[in-house]
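ugh ok fine here u go
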Amino acid sequence: MMKKSVPSMVKDPQLVKKRREQMVKGAVRLFIEKGFHRTTTREIAKESGFSIGTLYEYIGSKEDVLYLVCDAIYEEVSRRLTKQLDSSLTGIERLEKAISSFFQVVDEMQDEVLVMYQEAKSLPKEALPYVLQKEHEMTAMIEAIIRECVTEGVLTLSDEQIKLRAHNILVQGHMWTFRRWSIQKLFTLEQYTALQMEQLTASSR
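structure:
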C-alpha cells in the first residue's frame, strides 16, 4: 500500500523533512493539550515557529500533520526492528533485543504514540488504511522473530500463541505510554522492560 502523498510547494527534500519534523513536534504538544479537533493550523504554525503561510508550503491540511505524526512513529519502529532482523543475534537474544528496542522507541516517542492512538480516527479516509497496514507490518516483524525462536527450539508456542504473543509485545510497549501516569511512577523503563521480558519471552506451559 502506497504512502499518502502530502503536498509541498517546497522542492528541497531535506528542507521539507526538517520543517515537517518541526511541525510534528509542535502539533503533538497541542494535540495532547487540546485534542486534534480543537487545535487550529494557525496554532500549529505558531508552535512550530512558522507563519501560517509557511506552514501551508509544506502541507495541505491539518489532517496531513496528523498523518505525518503516525508515519514518523512507524518509520522509526520499522527501522529499529529491521535492524534486529538483520542482526547476527539468534534465538531469545534477538527477541529480547527487539522488545527492548521497541520499548525504547515508545519511550522516546511516547507523546507521538499517545496522539496517534487517541486521534487516528481523525485521519482522512485515504490515509487510515495505510496507517492500519503499517500496524499489521509491525506485528508481522515481531511475529517473524518469535517464529525464529520456535524454529530454533528455544520457545514452545503454537501458531495461535505466536500471533497473540506478537500482539502482546506491541500492547505492553504501548502501555508504557497509555498508563504512564501510573506505570512510570512505579518503574524505570529498564525495570519495566525486564519485568515484561520475563513474560514475553517465556514458553507456553
